[in-house]
Amino acid sequence: MLRVVQVAALLIAALLLAPIRIGRVNSHEESGEWHCDSDSGIRIKADFKPGIITVDGRVDDWKDVDGSDFPLLPALDPDADKEYNAGKMTLKAVHDGEEAYFMLQVNGNYTYTQGDRSKCASVALMFQISENASYHNMGGCGQEPDACTNQTCQGHEVDIMHFSLGSAIPGRLYGGNPVDNRDGTGDDRFGHLVDLYAWNPHCRFLDGLGPSGNDSTAQNDWQGSWWHSSLIDHSGFIEDDSPYASEGQNGTYYFEFSRPLRTMDHFRQDAQFTIGKSNLLSAAFWYPMDGQPWEGSGHYTISCDWITLDFISGTSPQVTMVARKNPWDVATAFSLLFSVVAFCISIFVGHRISKTNSTTNFVPMDEL
Ligand SMILES: *[C@@H]1O[C@H](CO)[C@@H](O)[C@H](O)[C@H]1NC(C)=O
Ligand SMILES: *[C@@H]1O[C@H](CO)[C@@H](O)[C@H](O)[C@H]1NC(C)=O
Ligand SMILES: *[C@@H]1O[C@H](CO)[C@@H](O)[C@H](O)[C@H]1NC(C)=O
Ligand SMILES: *[C@@H]1O[C@H](CO)[C@@H](O)[C@H](O)[C@H]1NC(C)=O
Ligand SMILES: *[C@@H]1O[C@H](CO)[C@@H](O)[C@H](O)[C@H]1NC(C)=O
Fold it and tell me: So which residues are the signal peptide here (predicted)?
């Protein structure tokens, strides 16, 4: 009986997730008790650095931004023995006062199968929206897949950005586009860089879609691009160049993303970022290990709990410049006033002298 219920639940989950087109991110089975010993204490700082980042997958523009390195452990079984074997993931963030920018970097042999995203690398970012949304179980709403609604799961909303390669040309921009935004969803039919929200792994929806109805004002607010260090790009790739580099070359994957700090979401489907405040985030990575397609649940994450992301205000360096400028202005005004006064005095003195000593003859310089 229990099995029948489980199978039915899985089927419902599969049906619910079918229109979302996330590949196989639905089987999310865990074995045993969940435990998490996360004491990394790492905080990611998004400093105010306007005008330095181009979202093109190339990361030279990030070289002066400090990042944090995280070991990648299986999301459902964060056991150090099962760490992703090609290296840690580096995560960096900045903002320019309007947009937040994220960079994810991870070593991995180049692999690309056109049109098959489960045979390509893939990344996701997840943010807490509501305060009761846990990292574990993507918000942690305890409802069954068919019982999740924005009422039964209220308070468990998480915001997810998932970029699956497979139809995304390296160096090009994907994510929000006029076609999908006109439909009012977080979809991206061109590059599969989608904007989602979730209450738990079985209750995930593209922004704008949901069990209680659709919201035609929703948008895909993300933009992003990818690159691999083995790629050599002379004049821009086209799809016919795929797989863009030779298979199996050692190197590093780069992913870059941007999103406005605020969005027009009004159903708790997007996290909102505020300068001077913090958000909670996580990052995930899928990779076709040994050429085997990845499973949706077979992803690695940077930590088994939320990581804090601080949006730093732009005041620190700017204020000191302004503070130095002000006394300088005062000094300028003073010296101007001083010189005007001195000038007036000299005219007055000159006038008095010429008046009192009007008979004084001219004294040649060399006689003084
Ligand atoms: C990359 O390729 C090397 C050599 O072929 C192999 O030893 C290594 O396991 C591969 N790394 C990954 C992450 O697949
Ligand atoms: C979070 O949970 C607590 C305790 O269950 C509850 O009092 C609070 O209202 C919840 N917050 C939200 C935003 O749902
Ligand atoms: C919401 O949109 C989806 C996908 O476009 C559609 O299948 C579904 O019927 C819509 N639901 C409602 C209640 O309109
Ligand atoms: C739930 O979603 C529906 C449809 O998008 C919306 O009309 C309703 O206001 C939402 N309720 C809450 C509590 O967000
Ligand atoms: C693979 O490349 C990374 C940097 O891109 C490097 O750190 C690593 O040592 C390389 N591994 C091998 C086996 O060459």
Answer: 1-27
The residue to mutate among 209, 216, 267, having the most atoms of ligand 3 within 8 angstroms of its beta carbon, is: 209
The closest residue, in CA terms, to atom 12 on ligand 4 is 150
219 close to 187: Cβ distance less than 8 angstroms: no
Report residue 219 as tokens.
């948008």
pLDDT for 191-243, tens place per residue?
999 999 999 999 999 999 999 899 889 999 999 999 999 999 888 999 999 99
Q: Which domains does the chain have, with CATH numbers?
A: 46-317 (2.60.40.1190)
Secondary structure, 3-state, 90-135: EEEEEECCCEEEEEEEEECCCCCCCCCHHHCCEEEEEEECCCCCEC
Ligand 1 and 40: CB distance under 6 A? no
Query: Which ligand 4 atom lies nearest to the CA of residue 214?
Result: 5
